[in-house]
UniProtKB/TrEMBL annotation:
Keyword terms, alphabetized: Isomerase
Record bears the keyword Thylakoid: no
Pfam family name, one: AP_endonuc_2
Protein name: Fructoselysine 3-epimerase
High-level lineage: Bacteria, Bacillati, Bacillota, Clostridia, Eubacteriales
EC number(s) per entry: 5.1.3.41
Domain Xylose isomerase-like TIM barrel: 19-268
Source organism superkingdom: Bacteria
Record's keyword annotation contains Isomerase: yes
Gene encoding the protein: frlC
Entries under PANTHER family matching the protein: HYDROXYPYRUVATE ISOMERASE, XYLOSE ISOMERASE-LIKE TIM BARREL DOMAIN-CONTAINING PROTEIN
Amino acid sequence: MKIGMFTSGYQRNPIEDVFKDAKRFGYDYIELWGARPHAYAPDLKAGDIHQIKELIDEYEMPVRGYTPEHNAYPYNFMIGSESMRRDAVEYLKLSMDMAKEMGADFTLMSPAHAGYNATAQEIWDRLIRTMRELTEYAEKIGHKIVLEALTPYESNVCKSANDLLEVFRQIPSDSLVGMCDIVPPYVQQESIMAYFDKLGEKMYHMHVIDSDGASDTHIMPGEGQMPLREMMAELKEMNYQGTMTIELVTSYINEPRFYARRAINNIRDLLK
C-alpha cells in the first residue's frame, strides 16, 4: 500500500515545506489540501499551478489526490440557495481541472452539513443531483471523484458505508468511487472492514488516523484508542493495494514537520 501526507496542517508554512518533508520522511505521495494560502483552485488557475508542478518535479513527489476545501466557508454544496450550490459546483469542477493538470488521480469530495431544517428527502435530492452533475464532469475530463463519508459531528448527509452505497446505486459510474476515513465508522460503532465488504471494487482510498472514540478529533496514529495494529494486520492479510493518507489536520499545526515525521514512523511500526 502507498502512504500519503495530508497537507492542511502545513497551511502556516511555505508550500515547499510540504514537498520537502514528504520526500525527507519517506511518504509515497501527497494528498494536497486546496485552500488559501496553498493550492486554492482559483489561485492555481491564475498561475499557481506552475509552482505545484515544479515542486512535484523537483522533489519527485507526486500529488496523488487533491482535496479542495468545501466543508466550510465559503463552499458547501449541501446548504443555502441554488445560486450558492451552483457556485460550489463550478468551484469543484475547476478543482477537478486543476487536479488533472497537476497529475492527480482523483479529487476528494465530502458532502458537508445540510443544515438543521433540511428533511431527509431534501438532503438526498440535493446530494444526488449535485454528485450526478459532478460525476458527469469527471467522466468528461477523464478523472475520478473519491466520495468520503464524514462523522455525524461534521455532517448530516453522507456518514456511512451504506450511504456511499446508495449514492453509487443511483449514480453508476467508473468515475465515482469511495473511501473510508476510519474515524467516522469508529465513533458511531460501524465496522471499518465492512467498507471493504460492502463497497468492493468501489473501495478506492483510505484516511488513517487515530481517535478518542467520542469526537471527530484526529489524533496521531497509535496514540488514541483505535486498534490500529490489528487493523493494519487485516489490511496486510487482505493484500490491500490502495492508497492510505495519514490525515493529520490542524491539531498539530504548530509543528507540522515534527508530527508528519512521527506519524509515518508510527504507521511503519504498526505495519510490522
